[in-house]
Amino acid sequence: MSCADQIFIQNCKEILSNGVWDTDHDVRPVWEDGTPAHTIKKFGIVNRYDLSKEFPILTLRRTAFKSAIDELLWIWQKKSNNINDLSSHIWDSWADETGSIGKAYGYQLGIRHKYKEGEFDQVDRVLFDLKHNPLSRRIMTNLYNHQDLHEMNLYPCAYSMTFNVSGNVLNGILNQRSQDMLTANNWNVTQYAVLLHMFAAVSGLQAGELVHVIADAHIYDRHIPIVKEMIEKVPYDAPKFIMDRDIQDFYSFTKDSFRLENYQYQTFTEKIPVAI
């Protein structure tokens, strides 16, 4: 059983057994038919993934590895907020007629800020510090810019990364305000595991731990039967993660710079409804 499967099963069992329902309240999300999308949740889940041991991708069902990386690069490399720069259609519901999702995600990473060493956007500042001041305890990014929230079509869910170097190992903490466990949990874990590998590789470091802090980890009401069936499946071992180690420039990575070897996963034919 892979570590990602084990953690996912534990999280879901904990939410289903000891979670709190929001059915006594009006909620913002709705299903496609307009019905309110209620959740059962746990507050403050913290998961740790040791990337030096295995790559944390689910085998209980397939995680779309290349599509997840494509979205990651859309945000962190292209620093885009326009779905026309993205191969998938996962953001279509949040985009306006021009394709923009407002001043969210990649837009925030692309804003340049003044530092004593000069002007950097948030990504370039991380790269600068990992090269010139790796022992800094100030290497972090934040997408939750209160000044721009009113111009974001969706507030950032995974909103901050803190990077920390111990010896020659790069560790990271991903903070997430809200997590749809079925549709997005392993998607985000996969993305930020790849991101940590990317930053480590171009900084002469080894990828270490990814710590995922989730404020509100929830399962939607219509997802519960799917989750219950899914966590009873027998997981496989984690696949081998392979990346192009010759790339030394963060902006030279593409989704084809990464692949999984021996990725086995359980067949999953259930159509998953998505609350918006």
Structure description:
It is built from 6 helices and 10 strands. It is α+β, with helices and mostly antiparallel strands. A hairpin with a 2-residue loop joins β6 (158-166) and β7 (169-180). The protein is globular, with a radius of gyration of 19 Å.
Strand content: 15-25%
Count of helical regions = 6
Largest sheet: 6 strands, mixed
- The amount of helix comes to 25-40%
Q: What is the CATH superfamily?
A: Thymidylate synthase/dCMP hydroxymethylase domain
Strand ordering within the main sheet: 1-2-8-7-6-5
Mean pLDDT: 97
* CATH class category label: Alpha Beta
In terms of structural class, how would the helical and strand content be classed?
Answer: alpha+beta
Number of domains: 1
Distance between the termini: 32 Å
- Radius of gyration, rounded? 19 Å
Order of helices and strands: HEEHHEEHEEEHEHEE
In CATH, the topology is named: Thymidylate Synthase, Chain A
- What overall form do the CA principal axes indicate? globular
Number of extended strands? 10
Topology:
Elements: H1 3-18, E1 20-21, E2 39-50, H2 65-76, H3 106-110, E3 113-115, E4 118-120, H4 122-132, E5 140-142, E6 158-166, E7 169-180, H5 181-202, E8 206-220, H6 224-230, E9 240-243, E10 258-261
Parallel strand pairs: 7-8
Antiparallel strand pairs: 1-2, 2-8, 3-4, 5-6, 6-7, 9-10
